[in-house]
């Protein structure tokens, strides 16, 4: 193994087939755009019986070198409704372990995307990003089920990649925060956005590129990694202001509010900043979120 003189391991590129489970979602679409083989709900329902799910997974993963699971129940507020409990548990907590086991059985690497919401949101020390091995302590059902899914994946030798604040942008209208803010800006409506949750946004395409890079690395991967775009942490309010500004609208049209002002069923962590140093030692450093936002909004300069 080459260490490029810096002690950082450099692995040779490896060509292989990457299968994306959850291919119709934000990150899944970007994975497919960069060459992954799509697996959608139509091909494999994660709520099938464990036996059927395993059999389908073994069939679909048979020629894969890497399986990336980006399927999840991501409706954080709806996850709090007891009516959805079995489905949320099935998709986020149970299915990932079955998929990871099937990947191990066919000899494929398994990458599983998880979330900052496994953390409490109260930093260990002020302004300290969450480390990969910090204890999880989720504050909502989505986070609890994602944390359980992480454990199941690691138990079968898979790698968990936590991310946060994923956005796609105006090319995927209505799917994410950035396209929603862009719509509001263009239609003259002035949003109120929470100013007490801090994190780092992640462009879906950046995360997909990072996952594809991981899929090509040879050698053992660590059990847990973090990937968000880089740069200084920001609140949702600050992020919304930047969308308005880059699109040529007055950022002062965005008003600030507190999480407590909103009657959301799910609590959300106040501090979501993930430490990226392990990722940066292993693979290409994520781009600054402001650069990705400018690019995603197709705005020069700014
Ligand atoms: N979005 C964020 O801000 C964010 C933040 C942190 C972490 N994450 C994590 O990042 C990953 C990707 O998120 P995303 O934003 O790309 O999610 P997304 O757009 O909501 O896509 C999730 C995909 O999962 C699929 N899915 C849900 N239930 C399924 C089932 N029973 N069987 C098969 N497929 C099913 C959905 O299929 P359909 O299209 O058919 O509904 C959808 O395509 C997830 O693991 C999520 O937890 C996301």
TrEMBL record:
Protein keywords: NADP, Oxidoreductase
Pfam families, per database record: RmlD_sub_bind
Record pathway: Carbohydrate biosynthesis; dTDP-L-rhamnose biosynthesis
Family statement drawn from the similarity comment of this UniProt entry: Belongs to the dTDP-4-dehydrorhamnose reductase family.
Gene name for this UniProt entry: rmlD
Domain spans labelled RmlD-like substrate binding: 19-297
Biological processes per GO annotation: dTDP-rhamnose biosynthetic process
Enzyme class: oxidoreductase
UniProt keyword Nucleus, yes or no: no
Summary of the function given for this chain in its UniProt record: Catalyzes the reduction of dTDP-6-deoxy-L-lyxo-4-hexulose to yield dTDP-L-rhamnose.
Organism: Corynebacterium provencense
InterPro entries the record matches: dTDP_dehydrorham_reduct, NAD(P)-bd_dom_sf, RmlD-like-bd
Name the UniProt record assigns to this protein: dTDP-4-dehydrorhamnose reductase
């Amino acid at each position: 193994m080459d260490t490029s003189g810096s002690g950082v391991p450099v692995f040779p590129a490896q060509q292989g087939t990457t299968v994306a489970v959850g291919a119709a979602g934000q990150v899944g679409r970007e994975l497919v755009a960069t060459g992954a083989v799509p697996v959608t709900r139509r091909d494999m329902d994660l709520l099938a019986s464990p036996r059927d799910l395993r059999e389908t997974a073994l069939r679909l993963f048979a020629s894969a070198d890497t399986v990336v699971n980006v399927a999840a129940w991501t409706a954080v507020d709806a996850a709090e409704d007891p009516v959805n409990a079995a489905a949320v548990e099935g998709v986020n907590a149970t299915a990932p372990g079955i998929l990871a086991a099937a990947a191990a059985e066919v000899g494929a690497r398994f990458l599983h995307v998880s979330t900052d919401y496994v953390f409490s949101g109260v930093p260990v020390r002020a302004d300290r990003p969450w480390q990969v091995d910090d204890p999880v302590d989720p504050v909502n059902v989505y986070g609890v089920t994602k944390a359980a899914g992480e454990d199941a994946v690691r138990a079968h030798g898979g790698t968990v990649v936590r991310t946060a604040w994923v956005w796609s942008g105006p090319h995927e209208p209505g799917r994410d925060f950035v396209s929603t803010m862009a719509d509001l800006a263009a239609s003259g409506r002035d949003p109120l956005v929470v100013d007490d949750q801090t994190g780092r946004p992640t462009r879906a395409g950046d995360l997909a590129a990072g996952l594809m890079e991981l899929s090509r690395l040879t050698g053992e991967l660590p059990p847990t990694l973090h990937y968000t775009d880089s740069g200084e942490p920001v609140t949702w309010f600050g992020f919304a202001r930047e969308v308005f500004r880059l699109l040529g609208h007055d950022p002062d049209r965005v008003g600030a509010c507190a999480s407590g002002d909103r009657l959301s069923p799910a609590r959300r962590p106040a501090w979501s900043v993930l430490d990226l140093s392990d990722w940066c030692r292993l693979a290409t450093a994520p781009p600054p979120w402001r650069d990705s936002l400018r690019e995603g909004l197709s705005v020069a300069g700014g």
